[in-house]
Specification:
This protein is α/β, with parallel strands linked by helices and 553 residues long. Helix content is 49%, strand content 10%. The chain contains 22 helices and 11 strands. α9 crosses α12 and α17 crosses α21. It starts with 14 loop residues before the first helix and ends in a 23-residue tail after the last helix.
Length: 553
């Protein structure tokens, strides 16, 4: 027997406050255990810091280049130096600071210096094997809402290099230290699927929620640097999105030309002047010069740009970027800022930023709380003792009531094998569950400037529609589960717009599958309904940089 009993006007509860209560209970139970209380201290910090977003992928996938593009500054090492083999955190700090955390437990402050515009990581003669992680604090606004984590390449020829990423993102005996992952791939490889499966299992726990987005990286190479390379890359990305294995492991596939994005976000005035010089050449001379990367850097009388200048342009933008920048200037761009904006738009970076903003950041509270709860579960397994039943009960309440995780799980199901609904209903269900974004207008398919009245009217109509679907005597158990999740999401919208209308209890239904199917899921769903309210979204006051903290908590 199942009934929709959630009330739209019930009081909301903060997932952060509930998790804080759980940590206080754990602190009381483990009082006197120095190792456990140190872990709880780290978990309290984790709960109040920004979302942890890790960049992962195979060697040479372009992780550090994309990170620089996201930051808008060249502070991540992009070469093959020792520091690219170390997990590196980038977080907000009022003043620049770089701290090296050694495996022997010591912390060493590193000097801050640049060479040719790049931040230099001086390891003072140490090897990657001696360093656990590097913490970079930098005064960038974008780091106030996200902690970005650069990881060494997986499937590396160096087993130790790959092991660092595995130990950090997909440990065998504890949850992942990242809340979500941007996974870069040049082509879909078996190692990519294997990693994403491991991250889902370690990050999501029993909920099997998916917290990863795949990036088809270095997309300028898909079309061999042709001016239409990104169009080809978008077609490849769409094909990958329909791949059954990948669809179950990533919420989307976004094509990004990372080198172009990095160059555009850090474009210098001298580079704009050089591009303008190229754009002003006669067509035959220009096309001859841009026919290939090799031809572009050969000595030539066709242009006044020296070979070193052209080599630097090629290094910073690639032949695709050089061709595109020249074409954009010929199209009417008249300043370096206009060129920068146009190149960023063409690179795919904005689509990736929008995806993170729409899918991960609005769910940050629950994703962070999930990481804390999974760490507490691991603590209970390692150190059982009297009094832990109260912690287990709190963990169970979180698991049952975390509707955001249920949404992510259903979105992954929708992408991989589909929802148990007719096609039109399934598409609408995925949208309401947050496939296109989590604002009320996104979920309801309304314009971004929809009025509260429009939102309330559409919400009321959708509630009636989905209650009718849930009340059908022909509904399978799996269908009913999806309908009730959709109703829960609609209830959140109704609460936001002040729609004072309760969800009337649905008729008692015994679905065709019988009450014994999907053992344990009924209790979880009823627990979700009996929560009686929906979590309000609140902005957190992020904690300042704490370089002495170990990140694996």
């Amino acid at each position: 027997m199942m009934a929709a009993t959630a009330q739209l006007d019930a009081p909301a509860h903060s997932v952060i406050a509930e998790t804080e209560d759980l940590l206080r209970t754990a602190r009381s139970v483990y009082a006197g255990d120095r190792e456990a209380t140190a872990l709880i201290d780290r978990l309290e910090i984790r709960l109040h810091e920004p979302l942890r977003l890790a960049l992962a992928g195979m060697v040479k996938a372009g992780k550090s280049t994309l990170l620089n593009a996201l930051l808008g500054e060249r502070i991540a090492a992009t070469d093959t130096a020792e520091c690219t083999r170390i997990v590196t955190w980038y977080r907000y700090s009022p003043t620049p600071a770089i701290t090296m955390h050694l495996r022997d437990g010591r912390c060493v402050r590193m000097p801050i210096r640049r060479e040719h515009g790049l931040l230099v990581f001086d390891l003072d003669g140490r090897t990657a094997e001696e360093i656990e992680w590097i913490d970079v604090g930098w005064p960038l606004d974008g780091l106030q809402s996200l902690i970005l984590i650069d990881t060494p390449g997986i499937a590396s020829l160096s087993g130790d290099t790959s092991a660092r990423t595995a130990r950090f993102l997909t440990p065998e005996d504890s949850p992942s230290s990242a809340d979500a992952v941007v996974y870069l791939m040049r082509h879909l490889h078996g190692s990519d699927v294997k990693f994403l499966e491991a991250f889902r299992d370690t990050a999501a726990g029993a909920a099997q929620s998916v917290c990863a987005v795949a990036v088809l990286s270095r997309t300028d190479e898909v079309g061999s640097g042709r001016i239409d390379s990104l169009l080809s890359a978008r077609r490849v990305a769409k094909r990958y999105e329909r791949d059954g294995d990948l669809a179950a492991l990533a919420l989307g596939v976004v094509p990004v030309a990372g080198l172009l994005a990095e160059g555009a976000r850090t474009l210098r005035e001298s580079e704009y002047i050089a591009f303008r010089e190229l754009a002003g050449l006669e067509r035959a001379a220009r096309e001859s010069l841009l026919v290939s990367a090799d031809r572009f850097v050969r000595p030539s009388d066709a242009t006044g740009l020296s070979v070193p200048v052209r080599e630097e342009l090629l290094s910073r933008f690639g032949i695709f970027g050089v061709r595109l920048a020249t074409a954009i200037i010929r199209g009417g761009v008249t300043s370096s800022s206009e060129l920068s904006d146009a190149l960023v738009h063409q690179s795919g970076l904005i689509e990736l930023q929008d995806f993170v903003k729409a899918q991960f950041q609005p769910r940050a509270e629950t994703l962070k709380a999930r990481g804390v709860v999974l760490q507490l579960q691991a603590l209970l397994r390692r150190s059982p003792r009297a009094g832990v039943d109260s912690i287990r009960a709190g963990i169970e309440r979180f698991t049952v009531s975390a509707h955001v995780l249920r949404e992510l799980s259903l979105l992954a199901q929708a992408r991989s094998r589909g929802l148990p609904l007719p096609a039109s209903d399934a598409e609408d269900a995925a949208r309401i569950l947050g496939a296109a974004g989590v604002t009320a207008s996104d979920r309801l398919g309304l314009a971004a400037d929809a009025t509260p009245s429009d939102i309330a009217d559409r919400t009321s109509a959708e509630i009636d529609r989905w209650r009718a679907l849930a009340a059908s005597p022909l509904a399978e158990r799996s269908t009913l589960m999806v309908c009730q999740a959709v109703l829960r999401s609609l209830a959140a919208i109704a609460s936001e717009v002040g729609l004072a209308r309760p969800l009337r209890p649905a008729p008692n239904i015994v679905p065709a599958g019988g009450p014994g199917d999907a053992s344990g899921q009924d209790a979880a769903e009823q627990g979700e309904q009996n929560q009686g309210g929906l979590r309000r979204k609140k902005r957190l006051q992020w904690f300042p940089l704490r370089p002495e903290r170990h990140p694996l908590g």
